[in-house]
Design a protein that fits this description.
Order of helices and strands: EEEEHEHEEHEEH
Radius of gyration: 18 Å
Structural class: alpha+beta
CATH architecture: 2-Layer Sandwich
Helix content: 25-40%
Shape: globular
Strand content: 25-35%
CATH topology: Ribosomal Protein S5, domain 2
Number of strands: 9
CATH class: Alpha Beta
Distance between the termini: 55 Å
Strand order of the largest sheet: 1-2-3-5-4
């Protein structure tokens, strides 16, 4: 059966409802919560602090270190096996690469900035939610940055190009599905993350990226407002 209308009533270009908040973990140097639909990401930042052992230090710039963890009963599918796994390591690596271009790590030689991302609840789009939360947490920690990084998934269900696939759409078995997570630097329109699971034509990819860029900029406004709300509250 052709997928011509989204099951939750959204337009093809719409993402799910978003909530964003910074300063949610008091003992961290920076922290943030980002919720999109039923996917919740919590990010904490510790540092910059001296990196040990010392042979790992870089005298020219600091080191960004990301960990990513989905809690065992967080997902809509099978139970997530606790502890480090290949998927978590891969997502941590792409998150580092997505955030690295906006960080002025040369200001922190011989230091490390640790970003820890926890997913207590997921319904697809978890790596993008983690990037959004981590970006806000880094800003909350006062890490010098050129910009923040919003992220969202785009993709294809059958012939329809849409934004922010949920688990129902990712698992839709009556049509072929492609999922394309993207992250953006809004000030330069550069993508820092582009992955794909599935097949699309060149024209479909161009359409998906344009929709993703527009959605990322709307998420960026939500991220900025969360920071403004936090620091406005601190001044009261």
């Amino acid at each position: 059966m052709a997928y011509i209308k989204r099951h939750d009533g959204r337009k093809m270009e719409d993402f799910r409802p978003v909530e964003a908040k910074v300063g949610v973990v008091k003992r961290a140097d920076g922290s943030a919560m980002f919720k999109i639909g039923d996917t919740v990401a919590l990010a904490t930042v510790y540092g910059p602090r001296e990196l040990h052992p010392r042979f790992l230090q870089n005298p020219e710039r600091g080191v960004l270190r990301v960990s990513y963890n989905m809690m065992p009963f967080s997902g809509q599918g099978d139970r997530v096996r606790p502890g480090p796994n290949r998927r978590a390591k891969e997502i941590a690596m792409v998150t580092e690469k997505a955030l690295f271009p906006v960080l002025n790590l040369e200001n922190y030689p011989n230091a490390v900035v640790d970003v820890m991302i926890e997913l207590p609840q997921t319904d697809a789009g978890s790596r993008c939610a983690g990037i959004c939360a981590a970006s806000m947490a880094l800003a909350d920690a006062g890490i010098t940055m050129k910009d923040m990084v919003p992220a969202v998934s785009v993709g294809r269900v059958g012939k329809q190009i849409l934004v922010d696939l949920d688990y129902y759409e990712e698992a839709y078995d009556e049509e072929t599905v492609a999922d394309i997570p993207v992250a953006l630097i809004p000030s330069t329109d550069e993508f820092t993350l582009l992955q794909m699971d599935g097949d699309v034509t060149r024209e479909q990819l161009k359409e998906a990226l344009e929709m993703g860029k527009f959605a990322c900029k709307k998420i960026y406004d939500i991220q900025k407002q969360a920071l403004k709300d936090k620091f406005a509250g601190d001044l009261k």
